[in-house]
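Subject: mismatched residue count in predicted assembly?

I count 338 residues in my input, but I want to confirm that the predicted structure covers every chain. Input:
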Amino acid sequence: MIDEHYTLYLLAGAALFVTGFHGLVSMPHLLKKILAVNIMSSGAALVFIALAARTPGSVPDPIPHAMVLTGIVVAVCGTGLALALADRVQAANGKAELDDTDDEEGGV
Amino acid sequence: MRLCWLNNALCLALLALLGWAVLELPETPRGLTEPALARLPDSGVSNPVTAALLNYRAHDTLLEIAVFLVAIVGVWSLREDRVARVDLRERPLVLSLLRLVLPVLVVAGGYLLWIGSFAPGGAFQGGALLGGALVLLLLTGLDGRALKRERWLRVGLTLGLVVFVGVGGGVMLLTGRLLEYPRASAGNWILIIEAAALVSIGLTLGGLFLGGRPAVEDDAPPTSEKPAHD
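Triage response: the counts match. Full output below for your records.
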């Protein structure tokens, strides 16, 4: 068992990640899926920051901080690209949802 | 629905797995604080996070700048978007707000870039402010003349990656290794890279907010529309 103080943050990060994952799988609307991925990345960042804070030393571990910064940036870029893709799906399908009826028919 | 139950069960299992993983972490983590701080005097900056971003793990940040470029190229190839045009003379309040806020945002962005070498800050934080300034411009409908000069926009968007690769390759001539700056001048090289990255990050964030390649419009005043023939 690790230091109680950081357990809350670590567990909250894991819970956020799973919440986002659940939304990513269960919600058909693409905008909600994009938001879900962002929630997942927030959860991962929370875990990293908590890990950085619990390393011994005078300052928090700078390496996870740098990695979280990288992760935020990649998430922002991915979100921007995903939104543009979702808009194209909306323009092509008339709705911002992936059409999965083809798979069911083709799978038989 | 069966799939719904499957997803719930999967997520519970994932939660249990991740919870177990964070609870089973070693009690005394070693971390990288010590080596990171020990080599800080050699890194050219005194902020350990900036040192990690632009010296210890510079390859990581180089690819991150490349991600910016890939994202904006992807967005540009997917959509084209028109910059809303509003005559700000009709909205004096917005104009005076912009006059007050925009210079502050730009100066604060530069300040964050500068203090990044010894305090929390850096190109990403500064770039976020510049991106915010661009978003403000786009939202208030200021005629995006700068966004229409696509050649310069492209130069700005690629500047960060070009300079980063140029410096990273250039220091190979001096030290023999990719992205290994000479110790005496490491701080300067990092500042050069960050300044270029600041411009690209700000422009990319603004461009991602626009959500498409800026539509090219001619600047001629709108002529009276001809009646449609049908």
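Chain A has one domain: 4-107. Marking this ticket as 'not a bug'.
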